[in-house]
Design goal:
Distance between the termini: 62 Å
Low-confidence stretches: 1-26
Structural class: alpha+beta
CATH superfamily of the largest domain: Alkaline phosphatase D (PhoD)
Helix content: 10-25%
Number of helices: 9
Largest sheet: 7 strands, mixed
CATH topology of the largest domain: Purple Acid Phosphatase, chain A, domain 2
CATH architecture of the largest domain: 4-Layer Sandwich
Bound molecules: fe (ii) ion
Length: 525
């Protein structure tokens, strides 16, 4: 008896309504409340974690996005196909995979044996239902130097603060790869299928069922599905996939059961992302990973949430972030406070020093450049928000030293979280301008949000004027970043929507920067 059959029978016998349910499972249909048959691929498809010969393809069987109970608690056998053409005339791989209720009927297939640097099309079938077709690709062979990589970078898509028009534009841009840097979901908001006019802080997610329902709600969006259907994604998480401003095992409420909540949230993240992971020990799910784009780019995808030291000097009686001055918060500059954890730091150092890539891209969640809220004239000055890298200055210094000693070529940091565009220089000491004594070690591009709001632009302009490393900042517009990476340079376009509340909003370039091979720092293009 194969595993799928065993799961099927075991689950069916528990339910005791075998006849009705096997009939549903055999056809892939579930009856909806009106007695009709619902479409099982309501959340679309996705792909990601590309290798030269493999890519993960994903879907989830869910007949009613707002009612998981409409899908029978059975393991479905979902068929899949991968082809070289959109019409599926040249199928190169196919098979069947189990969609088990224990993993929310999610399907992750690692399709192997593919050719490098190729586009493919994939789809799933259940009964007579056929999923939307997704387009995906493999990465170039390890030995090659590709001419170009077109990369879309996005983050922060709170359902309540606008439409996903930016995702429609990402799909239209036809990138080779999408990097999503966190806050794919936010943990609160009514479970509804329309983006509302205003936000209501209700229905906070705590349980596995809550988080699954949240992903289902978000993934119904046609524009988000289109961005997934256009290209493979690489992903990391930030705080809102679990809870605002959490770090390691501590949340804002100092909830003693937080680790249970985190495990549920991490499991739901795995269930809804095209990740190549073994689904076990969700309380400590390791998501930091590396991806090579031939010899052109190496992506070091980081997790700066799970292993960080507790946030420094939280408000009295609480966890979470604060804005603090080094004088009154000694913990801020404590040399022992890490951001990535020792194991990930060592993994990163090794990945940098062994990297054959022209561009070493640190794809991670939070702003790395120093962004003081007060002028910094001498050591100890300034006021810093503790949730980003500004809350972990010793860890940031250590990372800068690692970039320096690894001699990795062209370190480029990509970040999200702060709902603002920033173009930055990263010098070893961020409080002083770059100089021969204070070498410029990396470039940083921080993307704005898909929807989530930020501070007024006037305040951001004050930050730009107070912080040496920040060369440009824009916080009043939503959108995404489009990077073109070539052996000789990387260009970044900061793209902004006219109106995030208008699903049909056009998008335009707010600014563009270029980084030349061998010369850290963004140059206005
Ligand atoms: Fe966010």
């Amino acid at each position: 008896m194969d595993d799928q059959r065993r799961i099927f029978l075991a689950t069916a016998s528990r339910l005791g309504a075998l006849a009705a349910l096997t009939s549903a499972s055999a056809t892939g249909r579930a009856q909806n409340r009106d007695g009709g048959h619902a479409y099982p691929f309501s959340l679309g498809v996705a792909s990601g974690s590309p290798l030269p010969d493999a890519v993960i393809i994903w879907t989830r069987i869910l007949h009613d996005p707002l009612n998981a109970a409409a899908t029978p608690r059975l393991a479905f056998s979902v068929r899949w196909e991968m082809a070289e053409d959109e019409q599926f005339r040249r199928i190169v791989a196919k098979g069947a995979a189990s969609a088990a209720p224990e993993l929310a009927h999610s399907v992750h297939v690692d399709v192997t044996g593919l050719r490098p640097d190729r586009w493919y099309w994939y789809r799933f079938m259940l009964g007579d239902a056929v999923s939307p077709v997704g387009r995906t690709r493999t990465v170039p062979a390890a030995s090659g130097m590709p001419k170009q990589l077109k990369l879309a970078v996005a983050s922060c898509q709170h359902w309540e603060f606008g439409t996903y028009a930016a995702h429609r534009h990402i799909a239209a841009a036809a990138p080779d790869l999408v990097a999503f840097l966190g806050d794919y979901i936010y943990e609160w908001g009514p479970y509804q299928l329309r983006h509302p006019k205003s936000a209501v802080r209700a229905s906070e997610s705590f349980t596995l069922a809550d988080y699954r329902a949240r992903y289902a709600q978000y993934k119904t969006d046609a524009n988000l599905q289109a961005a997934h259907h256009a290209a493979p994604w690489i992903v990391t998480w930030d705080d809102h996939e679990v809870a605002n401003d959490y770090g390691n095992e501590q949340d804002e409420r100092l909830d003693p059961r937080f680790l249970q909540r985190r495990a549920a949230a991490y499991q739901a993240f795995y269930e809804h992302m095209p990740l190549r992971l073994t689904p076990r020990d969700f309380a400590h799910l390791r998501i930091y990973q590396r991806y090579d784009w031939g010899k052109l780019a190496r992506f070091h995808v980081l997790d700066d949430r799970q292993y960080r030291a507790d946030l420094a000097c939280p408000p009295p009686g609480r966890g979470g972030s604060n804005s603090v001055q080094p004088r009154t918060c000694p913990a801020l500059t404590d040399l022992g406070r890490g951001m990535l954890g020792r194991e990930q730091e060592q993994w990163l150092a090794q990945g940098l020093s062994s990297s054959p890539a022209r561009w070493n891209i640190l794809a991670q969640q939070t702003l790395m450049a120093q962004n003081s809220q007060l002028p910094v004239v001498k050591e100890g000055d300034g006021r810093f928000w503790t949730d980003g890298w500004d809350g972990y200055p010793a860890a940031r210094r250590k990372l800068m030293d690692t970039l320096h000693t690894s001699r990795a070529s062209n370190p480029l940091v990509l970040s999200g979280d702060v709902h603002s565009f920033f173009a930055c220089e990263l010098a070893r000491n961020p409080s002083r301008p770059a100089s021969p004594d204070n070498p410029l070690l990396a470039t940083e591009f921080c993307g704005t949000s898909i929807t989530s709001p930020s501070r007024p632009q006037t305040r951001t302009e004050q930050y730009v004027s107070m912080n040496h490393g920040i060369k440009y900042g824009r916080s009043d517009k939503r959108g995404y970043m489009l990077l073109t990476i070539t052996p000789s340079d990387t260009s970044a376009h900061f793209l902004v929507l006219d109106n995030v509340h208008d699903d049909a909003s056009p998008i335009a370039r707010a600014a563009a920067f270029v980084v030349r091979d061998g010369r850290a720092g963004p140059v206005r293009a």
